[in-house]
Amino acid sequence: MTITRRTLLAGGAAGALAASLLPGAAFAVPPNEDGYDLWLRYRLVDDSALLSRYRAAFTHVVVLGNHAVLRSAGAELARGLSGMLGRSIPVREQIGNGAVVVGVGADSDLGPEGFTIKRRADRLEITGSGESGALYGAFRFLQQLQRRRPLDRLDLTDQPAAPLRMLNHWDNLNGSIERGYAGKSIFAWDELPGLRERYVDYARILASVGINHTVVNNVNASAEFLRSERLAGLAALAGVLRSWGVRLWLSANYAAPITLTKDQPSPITVADPLDPRVQQWWQDKIDEIYRLIPDFGGFLVKANSEGQPGPLDYGRTHAEGANMLADRLAPYDGRLVWRSFVHEGFDDWAEYQYRVFHPLDGQFHGNAVVQTKNGPIDFQVREPVNPLFGGLPHTNQMIELQVTQEYTGHSTHLCYLVPEWKSILGFRTHTGKASTVADIVTGVAYDQDNVGLAGVINLGDDRDWTGYQLGAANTHGFARLAWNPGLSADEIVSDWIELTFGGDAQFRSVLKAIMLQSWQTYESYTSPLGMGYLTYPLGAHFAPAPTTTQNLSHHTTAEGTGFDRTATGFTGMYAPPWQEIYSSLEKCPDELLLFMHWVPYTHRLHSGKTVIQHIYDSHFDGYDKVVAFRRAWERLAGRVDQARHADIAATFDAHVIEAERWRDTIVSYFYGFSRIVSSGTGWLQLGYPGGQLLFGGKPNNLPVEVTNANSTSRSFAATVHPVDSGWQAGTASATVGPGAAATVALPVTPPLIADHVDLSIDITPAQTALSSRHQTFVVTPDAAQCHLALDIGTADSPLVTGYARVSPSTSWNTTLGYGWVGTAPQGRDRGNTWDALRRDFCGDYPARTLRITLPPGPVRLSALVGDGGPDCPPTIIAEGNKVLATSTDLPGGIFTWLHADLDGGPTGRTADLILDSEPDRFWHLGALVLT
């Protein structure tokens, strides 16, 4: 069994399903759905009177024009009306009574993408100022019907506020998605120019909410996307998108001329933007792309950041690097988007982007756009608005928002981000004609056209597209804000709920309340007072790990915590009103206090609480709210189909577990430093000084450190809660004084297994005990009871008791009975935050061979896979042409055991285990046992 972040907790899901089947409900249970349709659900209108009126009013569709985008609009109208009216609604050439007419009519007041919807006596007209506007109007009309609007309330006029409404995919050629939590890429690169039906649905999703540009590959770009052999396939994909009003973009690797000419007789050896050969290579490549993709949007570039190449490698500026590409795109109406996310190490990122890009203001050419993350750090749940907004008045600028929840809970924690984005877009910079971030990215502030919003998107090939069904609200919400930043979070989420789940008033009210509270709830049990970045910096950015960012994002001591950014000059990068507010300990908003200042734990907030009491209370309160969310969702059983109710209930079950983990870790961390007892209810907090490793098949004495965070002594008995009947456990008791700690040894004997288990420690008498539940332990078999027990990793890492070491230098040895054959792999050690088994591993990009000796007869092979740092790609174990076991993509910090049955025959034999991964991905192996 593997403990994952989306473990289906059968009890919670089954309970919700059982509730939905209770007799006596006053409403019909809707048919099951799987989330694939997102908000494009064209279900039959369930109000018979309204259905009759709709059927009389809308009988056929007429498309005025033969443009591909208009044909798409007509097809969508026919599809949507047929579904909602329960009868075939054809596309016809002649306008008759009941026609829905879609076409183009010039209206300079609506810009190039605006539309009007107007109901007349015998027809309904959808008129776009351009073809895309007509398409957007068609979708908006259908959405009005989905929301069951009466016929006399269908007229409207609308236009987008931002010219560039863009998705950023972080998809790789091998199908993986960096910071993706919804499966693999939806794009099957090697199948192109073959097309999948899902590409059409993808384009429909984008068009339905007004997205007009999409960058289909990762900003950490592979130059292979620009190889000539791939461009025909990308042109086919662009053709699908084009018919729905979406322009395809590519992320470009700045060193592509080097990579793609290295096998030529006269290769290019530099990527200097002022080098004539480099300039000509890019000119030729851009010409080639536009011959195949005439509406190609342009390039997105990440340069001189996190190891990516760029112009600074040659003594040039970011502006010089961007302009070289922008000038070559300009004749084709192409644009160059250049990311400003650059930083120096992990000391303090906050001021570096401003220091680099502010002096370059006005030096970027007219079709070059600087894309800036919303905050100065990295998509934290709370951080100040990036001072570059307002700091680049003479530069086109886009805001980069992260829809995929890298730092806000992945696909496990519900965190509806629209309220956060609203606060960012509404931030007054006190610069320009109008002063909000929204004014800058819509072009109002500085009279600019090449501006907009980019969303690092959360889409993948999961059936529900976003990994958890409520996550689609962020996809929808980003697009709606890109269209109109003036919409309220309440309006946007209400729209999404009705389109996704229907119009049940009680359902809508309950879910809306949950969604609108979820961002601040997530903040409350994770990141106190703007501190941010409390996850392992080089890992998955999911689980709490405050020790790993100490003195990086916070300077926590026994006396206080926070980060004094007044000393770095950061607060001086804002306009004067904010300089005064942020630099002042008295005026700084509480929600950003620990981002801007270092304070003692006893510092009083504007709320009247001390900092330490706020940390305690907010984490307990936040966890309690998540529990309340789950209960509220359970009560909605029967008001939504059973399949989606059960799936979302399972997400809430996992959410509760992870919120508890965050609460326990952060509260324990700050109590451990401050030793200040809460003014409310106290607690015990448990630690595991020996690590979370148990040996299967033998007695263990599990050391557990119990700290008493109460004002009085506490006596208790502790026992490992048995996983099942195969486990044996004993009890240990202790009395601990206030503020003191005691270590007890808990007797526990797991069965002879290789597994990961979710353990809890039972404390009696019952009391709040942090880190006592849902603790992930690895169980590895006792070496003495194994035919072979190998700890695989580096040559100098700690060794698991009784296990033999296999490092890259361990070559095949007939006496030992194990070792590498041929080229050895690499070794990695993630450090002492992990136990001896999980801290290190061997791995590589090419396949490698580990030879082992099998004993006679049947034998069970178990192999540990995972990485305590970054995410872990699949590991494939094969013998000859037979695949024995394959792991899935694993988030950083998550491990799994792979198992396979082998047979040594009557006398034993050797087995050559081939270890590999998907193309261009790194396999991992941390341990191997034979039982």
Which key terms come to mind for this protein?
8-stranded parallel beta barrel, 19 helices, 6-stranded mixed sheet, 931 residues, globular, single chain, disordered N terminus, alpha/beta
What is the structure about, briefly put?
This protein is of the alpha/beta class and 931 residues long. The strands form 9 sheets. Strands 7-8-9-10-11-12-13-14 form an 8-stranded parallel barrel. A 6-stranded mixed β-sheet has the order 2-1-3-5-4-6, covered by helices on one side.
Q: How would you characterize the overall build of this protein?
A:
- The chain is built from 19 helices and 40 strands.
- With 931 residues, it is an alpha/beta fold.
- The protein has an eight-stranded parallel barrel. Strands 2-1-3-5-4-6 form a six-stranded mixed sheet, with helices on one face. A five-stranded mixed sheet has the order 21-23-19-17-26.
- The chain starts with 9 loop residues before the first helix and ends with a strand.
Topology:
Elements: H1 10-20, H2 48-57, E1 60-63, H3 68-85, E2 91-92, E3 99-104, E4 115-119, E5 123-128, H4 131-146, E6 156-158, E7 164-168, H5 197-208, E8 213-215, H6 228-242, E9 247-251, H7 256-261, H8 276-292, E10 298-301, H9 318-329, E11 335-339, H10 352-357, E12 368-373, E13 397-402, H11 418-425, H12 437-441, E14 452-456, H13 472-483, H14 489-501, H15 505-526, E15 560-562, H16 576-583, H17 593-596, E16 598-600, H18 611-634, H19 642-674, E17 683-687, E18 693-696, E19 700-709, E20 714-720, E21 728-729, E22 731-736, E23 741-749, E24 755-759, E25 761-764, E26 769-770, E27 775-781, E28 788-792, E29 804-806, E30 818-821, E31 826-829, E32 840-844, E33 848-854, E34 858-866, E35 876-879, E36 882-886, E37 895-903, E38 909-916, E39 923-925, E40 927-930
Parallel strand pairs: 1-2, 1-3, 3-5, 7-8, 7-14, 8-9, 9-10, 10-11, 11-12, 12-13, 13-14, 17-26, 18-27, 28-29
Antiparallel strand pairs: 4-5, 4-6, 15-16, 17-19, 19-23, 20-22, 20-25, 21-23, 24-27, 28-40, 30-33, 31-32, 32-39, 33-38, 34-37, 34-40, 35-36, 35-38
Helix pairs in contact: 1-19, 3-4, 6-8, 8-9, 13-14, 14-15, 15-18, 18-19
